Amino acid sequence: MNTKSAAAVLSALLYAQGLLGFAGLATVLLRDRAQAEVVAIASDAPSGPSAIVLR
Q1: Cα torsion at 9, 10, 11, 17 (round to 10°)?
Q2: CA 20 to 30 Å from 3, out of 9, 18, 31, 32?
Q3: 3-state secondary structure 13-26
Q4: Does the CA dihedral 42-43-45-49 come out positive or negative?
Q5: Is 29 in a helix, a strand, or coil?
Q6: What is the C-alpha end-to-end distance of the chain, expressed in Å?
Q7: Helix, strand, or coil here: 34?
Q8: Distance (Å, rounded) from C-alpha 43 to C-alpha 37?
Q9: 9: Cβ–Cβ under 8 A, 6 or more apart, which residues?
Q10: What global pTM score does this model have?
């Protein structure tokens, strides 16, 4: 394998690794954000019996 093709292969591998790293980071950040929204929604919901009593 000559030097130019080795450099091209290495560049392609590094580019692919960068894309995978970016996708992994985006996945982690979006998952944490979604979990934070679920916790915020759950904390807004009443935890006990309703204060409204119908007679």
Answers
A1: 110
A2: 18
A3: HHHHHHHHHHHHHH
A4: positive
A5: helix
A6: 86
A7: helix
A8: 10
A9: 1
A10: 0.53
